[in-house]
Amino acid sequence: MEICSSQHGSSIMWFFRDRGFDDKSINEMFKKCKRLEGAQRERASENWAYLKSIGIQERKLPSIVSKCPKILTLGLHEKLVPMVECLSTLGTKPHEVASAIVKFPHILSHSVEEKLCPLLAFFQALGVPEKQLGKMILLNPRLISYSIESKLTEIADFLASLGLARDGMVGKVMAKNPFIMGYSIEKRLHPTSEFLRSVGLAEHDLQTVAMNFPEVLCRDVNKVLKPNLDFLKSCGFRDGQIAALVTGFPPILIKSVRNSLEPRIKFLVEVMGRQIDEVIDYPDFFRHGLKKRLELRHKLLKQKNIACSLSEMLECNQKKFLMKFGLFEGSA
């Protein structure tokens, strides 16, 4: 549908058309942001140029502006520059800030004083180390849009309910996986923790999962965790054995059955000629790469007719493995 210049400010209309936006995109942006109606072409051009100057590729700018057209209406020195400068102090690598803006352009529409500073203070109070603060926000810039009272505090309370200490451990989990804060407690985190309990994990095991593998808590029970559990049962593992496997290597519940678990089980039994029960004593078996680690080491041991446990075979780097079994070229 063709847009009349009289319908929207003709000055800003030409700004968009000059940069290749079609009428449909322009219409969508005006619906999203009423402030565009009175926007000045000069301000929009200035903000566009500033975003380019901080390392955002020009080909990505139309996508950024389409997601958050408000960016073009904000005061450059009142809003954009202070936020970018503050974010820059949190980053350690060039282009980290530009990358965060590309991920979540709305970060620029938030206030440093009203949103960013309270957010940093909230995480510091939970024991997040200063070096990790910037990493968290630049990795998941959407954090700035969450309410501290109704969203982030609830997530902290949930993690504390698992027995994690508020003055350090809760903050460490959030720093390790900042995306955990985007999930619903009621629809995702609570059902997942209850599922893990039902599998046989004790409270201290749950804490270990949260501390070391928080991504497991973020996955859907019915779509991911339960199908993986069903696969382990189909392999012949009993309930107690499954609890031992999940406790020893929690990502076993979120690894792809077809691409990860099934090929490793098949290799263990059919190629290595081992009993499936051996992985219960060494659940980290599922952590190792099939081609780079399992197949290569099995081949070397088989050539020398050496028998050993899975942990002896895998729980060391390549150099130590070769030394342990006398497998250096030329060795007797």
From TrEMBL:
User: Which keywords are on file for this protein?
Assistant: Transcription, Transcription regulation, Transcription termination, Transit peptide
The superkingdom of the source organism is: Eukaryota
Question: What molecular functions are annotated in GO for this chain?
Answer: nucleic acid binding
In terms of Pfam families, this protein maps to:
mTERF
GO BP annotations of the record are: DNA-templated transcription termination
- Family named by the database record: Belongs to the mTERF family.
PANTHER family on file: CGI-12 PROTEIN-RELATED (PTHR13068), TRANSCRIPTION TERMINATION FACTOR MTERF9, CHLOROPLASTIC (PTHR13068:SF151)
Name by which UniProt lists this protein? Transcription termination factor MTERF6, chloroplastic/mitochondrial
